[in-house]
Input
Amino acid sequence: RGWFAEGRPPVLECLRDISLLTDKGFCCYSLGAQRNTDAIEIARLARGVSDEQLLDGPSIYSIINTNSPLKLDVPMMEGIIQMSSRGQIIIVTPFTLSGAMAPVTIAGALVQQNAEALAGIAFTQMVRKGAPVGYGGFTSNVDMKSGAPAFGTPEYNFDLSQRRADSVKRYLVEAMGISPVQIQTRGYGPT
Output
């Protein structure tokens, strides 16, 4: 303890531990300018490098998700500004769901994903030419009946649905004292 004054957010202790217990770059979550600047400074101190050396040798990275459709929100923009201006890695990874916040067709969803990624990448270069940046992407679809993300195979989703139902039963039996013979469970699939 002792590294930080009392009352500092636990995330700082987590970042301290990561920077001291590994020699690998680590992820900084872009949840506002202060979070990024704290993580960058902790990484710089742990490596024992100057600000100039940090510009030439990235120590941490951050994943920037767009707020689809076609929007980068303030915390993500602040993350790009803080990280790119200090030479740290940004990976722009739009999270799009076909049929919800992206077009329902694969082609349309990929066009949107690409536009969002390229906008974020271009912004990193506006902040600092040559700033390290990667292109990420995550596009999936939603179940049009339920609106739930449709991850995995149908078999997996049916199994997951049954496990959810069994989990509710276990809670009702253990926490609420209901007899298990009074409860039947049935998973209905990807809902």
About this structure: The mean pLDDT is 84. Helices lie at 10-21, 33-47, 51-56, 74-85, 106-127, 154-174. The chain has six helices and six strands. Strands lie at 26-27, 60-64, 89-92, 95-98, 133-135, 138-141.
